[in-house]
Amino acid sequence: MALTVTFGNGGAATVADLQNVADQAAYDLLDSTTTQTKSTIGTTGSQISSTSVAVESTTGQAAGTVDIQYDLSSNSFDFDVATKWNSVKNALAVSDTSENLSFKDFVQVDVSLGGTGNSTVEIYNVKRTNVTTGDGNDTVTISMSSNDKAWVNAFSINTGKGNDTITLLKGEALNSSDVGGVQSASVVNGGAGVTDGSFTSVTINAGAGNDTIDLSAVNLKSSTVTGGAGTDTLIASGGTDTFVFNSGDFGKTVGSADHIEGFALGTDKIKLTGTAYSDWKVTNVDGDSLITYVGSDSAHAKDKIVVDGVDLSSSSAWFTA
Q1: What CA–CA distance (Å, rounded) separates 139 from 70?
Q2: Is residue 153 packed enough to be buried (19+ CB in 10 Å), middle (13-18) or exposed (0-12)?
């Protein structure tokens, strides 16, 4: 399946909704003028023509415009809402191969990619997003901007196998000169909106591989982060984070153990599924906490996690099953 990118002014909450043709039609995402399909041109690479696309509104507001740019040298595609935020609500990108994609100033972006190549997905100033990539070493960078608490403020990121890097950033103020304001929607904070993620709930599953997940730039309403198998670096947000470990997600030595940075005792949790607090021993090692399995389940024998810069040895508040 070639890459297909569709723009619209619907309100679907998940990428699964938009992969059904009937739902695409219901959310006004099927239109020959807004659907762009990548084509392969000889040996020059794959491209969607650089152009501007008008996206009609379903509510009587002015049409929005998406500027499309293609960079042959990096085989990358850039989709930028040239009109105000909320003038084009949706972008849907679907491909069964890896891609290099950048989106800016959409309310919702849904990306579903496959393959074993390395994908790069950049999404800026988005209120909600669902991103799925294939089994390469993928890089996902997303900045968040929201007009208010209404509707859904949620991110879902699934990066499959591979050594993936996931970074969440603060977005731009919606009334900044770069974004240009908001069309036909209420906005808190004097028109600036909220850019630190404090309205946003995030679910991340990075799959197997040596992954880096960095939430340190934002203050999330909540996050649920699963690094998966491999040696991962997990960096907490300034909000409420839960780091999930399932059987097989642990290192057996200090060198192969996952590291959690920025952990806030009393706010953040480590979910060690299928175990009890008494199954674990916490040792303070030069100000870091080494969490080691000491229970009777042989599958967990020698399982370890390192929590940097915080002493968890005198409290059970960090643990949840």
Answers
A1: 19
A2: buried
